[in-house]
Every structure is written in structure tokens, then in C-alpha cells.
Give the backbone structure.
Amino acid sequence: MQITFWGVRGSYPVPGAATVRYGGQTSCVEVRSASGECLIVDAGTGMRALGNKLLREATAPQNHHVLLSHVHWDHIQGLPFFSPAYIAGTKISIYALLTAADELQQVIGGITRQEFFPMSLEAVPATFDFHEVAPGVGIDIGPFQVMPIALNHPFGSVGYRIDCDGSSWAYVSDTAPFDRVLHKQHFLPGPEELSEDDKTSLGDMRDALIRGLKGVDTVIYDTHFLPEEYERFPHYGHSTPDQALDVCEAAHCRRLVLYHHAPSHTDDQMDKVAADYLELGAKRGIEVLTSFEGMTLPIGPAPAEAS
Ligand SMILES: [Zn+2]
Ligand SMILES: [Zn+2]
């Protein structure tokens, strides 16, 4: 199995001279099995270039499977620009957590309403189907075994552990650490004001994430903030590389990939983040890589001690 990053940025796209090397497109990762089957995780603006590549490679209309972490703009905005959707005979299956809307179809249909986009979802030549995922309930998609994991983000999001070809990796974005409740509503009290029930449910959520990541080779994690930025915006629903390292260490993961970079972080800042956390991770026995647009990573076998 291997993964390729088509968008690594959080919140909104940031094209321009300051983001040329790490890239300015938002969240989208392509997964390939050894037999060449494809899965797409998140549909941010990086999905547009991925769609063009898939279309160039295809000899006939394909079935595409798209796992969404949640439906914030930076995770769905590439979908209307996914060129295979405009080829008759194409089938696109969307998997997501039901969050703010009654039906997933309403959300995806909503972004292509005539006020926002010239072609409605019903008019698009491809056929769409929608699947609601639930944390802890595994699904099989072709050769991929997919396990959704609940994350702590405003109105909820899910991470995915993906096993295939005897190896596994996990996509953990978007999430805050587990010291304040974000997944039920947007703005809640800080850690000092948490009820006992809240503390228990947050602890359970973190435990379930760590259990879900056990034995995983590579973890892609929402590390939007540096520690000093996190202090100012703890309610935004994102983590720091240090918080991601804590989770990966507890789950005995071999490799952490920093992801969902803040749009304000320039290439020069990202170089420093990459170098600093490569060193900090090495001290804790974890290889820390920093994702950039176009990066392809082979996923290794599970570490022997965790299997
Ligand atoms: Zn995001
Ligand atoms: Zn989000």
C-alpha cells in the first residue's frame, strides 16, 4: 500500500510564492493497494488535480470511493471539480459521519446548489451514493479494511484506520487534543470547567483513538498549530505536533506525518517545523515526516512488538 498527498493544508487554500514547496491545496490523500486499487481520503481542493490524473489513467469509467473525515469546506471543496464526475458511467461513493445535516446527500447537494455552482448534483453525469459511517464499525471497500475512529472536533469528525496488503496507516484529521469537549457543540468551557462526565467521555475518546492506532505503521495527524498558536486557539479543534507525538507514542506507532498545516505557515516556517520535530520525534523513537503536496509514502509492515 502507498499513499500520496494531493493537499496538505487546513482551513483554506493558500496558493502563492510562500507555499510553493509544501503546497497550498487543502486536505486530500490518495491510497493505492499493491494491486492498484484506489481509495480517496478527504475531498479538499487537492482533489481537483487528483481527479485529472485519475481521468488520464482511466481506460473506462471508474468506481471511486471517497472517505470524508467531516464536511468542513477544506475537506469537501474539491468535490465539484473532480473531473471523473463529469464522465457518464462513473460511480462515486461517499462515506462520512452524519454531523450537522439530516442527510449527507443534503450537504454534498448543498454545495452544488445553483447559487454556488453551475451544475447541480442531480445533473452531474456520474452517479453518487452516500454511506453513513459510525465510529468503531468497520467497512470493507475492495481490498481495504476501513475502521472509523471518533475525533474531537466541532460537531464531530472521524479518523480512519486503513488496513491492506498486510500493512496499515491511519488518517487522524481534524482533531483537537482531548482536554475540552468540541465534538458536541462549538464553544465549550476550558479544561478547568469540565464536568466529571465530560472528563470521562474525553478520556474514553482518547483511549479509543490509541487502541485504534495500535500496530499502525504510519499516522497522518492534524498538526495545524504550533504550541504557542494552540494556546490562543484551543477551541478551533486542531492539534500540535507535540500532542500528536503523545498519541503516537502511546499507540507505539512507527511514523508520524504532520498534516493539515496552518495556511499562515510559509515554506520557511514549515522547514523549521519539519527539522525541529524530526529531531524531537527521534528522541521518542518515532520518525516524524512533514507532508507536502506530491509526497508519496510506501506504508511498511506493522512493527513486530505491536502486532
Ligand atoms: Zn480541516
Ligand atoms: Zn474541520
User: Anything to note?
Assistant: The CA atoms of residues 7 and 109 lie 23 Å apart. The first helix runs from residue 47 to 57.
